[in-house]
Design goal:
Distance between the termini: 57 Å
Number of strands: 5
CATH topology of the largest domain: Zinc Finger, Delta Prime, domain 3
Number of domains: 2
Largest sheet: 5 strands, parallel
Helix content: 55-70%
Radius of gyration: 23 Å
Order of helices and strands: EHEHEHEHEHHHHHHHHHHH
Length: 327
Amino acid sequence: MARNSTTDSPLAPLTIAVGQEDLLLDRAVREVVEAARAADADTDVRDLTPDALQPGTLAELTSPSLFAERKVVVVRNAQDLSADTVKDVKAYLDAPVEEITLVLLHAGGAKGKGLLDAARKAGAREVACPKMTKPADRLAFVRQEFRTLGRSATPEACQALVDAIGSDLRELASACAQLAADVEGAIDAAVVARYYTGRAEATGFEVADLAVTGRAAEALERLRWAIAVGQPLPGITFALASGVRAIGKLASAPRGARSGDLARELGMPPWKIDRVRQQMRGWSADGVSAALRAVADADAAVKGGGADPAYALEKAVVAVARAARTR
């Protein structure tokens, strides 16, 4: 089976995904894997970290197969490869193997630049995956997400979504997909407000604020009121997930850091940093994991996977409130 060698094709012999935005890096990998499996459903995928790619490993993985098996070899954090392994990779670039696609994920900085230069010289297909630090870049990302999903969203809706969610591209992409799936017709700012903003009418965030501080009874009361007045159930699960994720992010941040510095690093407004600091008392790493699992189960239920979505949400609220008192 001949391989497409066009550098614009995901099936090019070599793809380099350059940057530090995890969502875009994962998408670059997924595009190659999906293209390979479309060409051959039995494609073997090997996803490796630098410590797993020791000298000689690449030669073993790319040795010719008796059955001409198609294979995708993904190397993450290629800038961290050892000097000996970099030599192996450069040698491979001089003589790539038929039916094998190599994908190198590289942060793009000065570290490991020699490998990046060698890959470019070898004619690699390159995918840019930069961190989106500017609000305008995130706004453009949201607009493109809706276009990719085949949906129309007003400029005000796109801006409202960025304002409500912040800089986390995974959450922005998830929100775009959720709105595209749940909302018929044009997506406007009013729709975004119902689902994602923290205004009084978006009571999912009130439910989340009560649950993450361990106030189960109050959170359940607010949840039942939100359901009674017709608040979108996916918006409530989103608010719960956002509240728990914010606690997990801040818990892993350096202690003693200033709110402004953390806001830039974590993609949250400074006022939210201060609020989450108050909310995270009583939380543990195990509690965050348990709460996220419970919210994921509820999200699946409200999207058609359960017979009683309201009950699933109540279970999630109780689980989150209980997790807030695990320390």
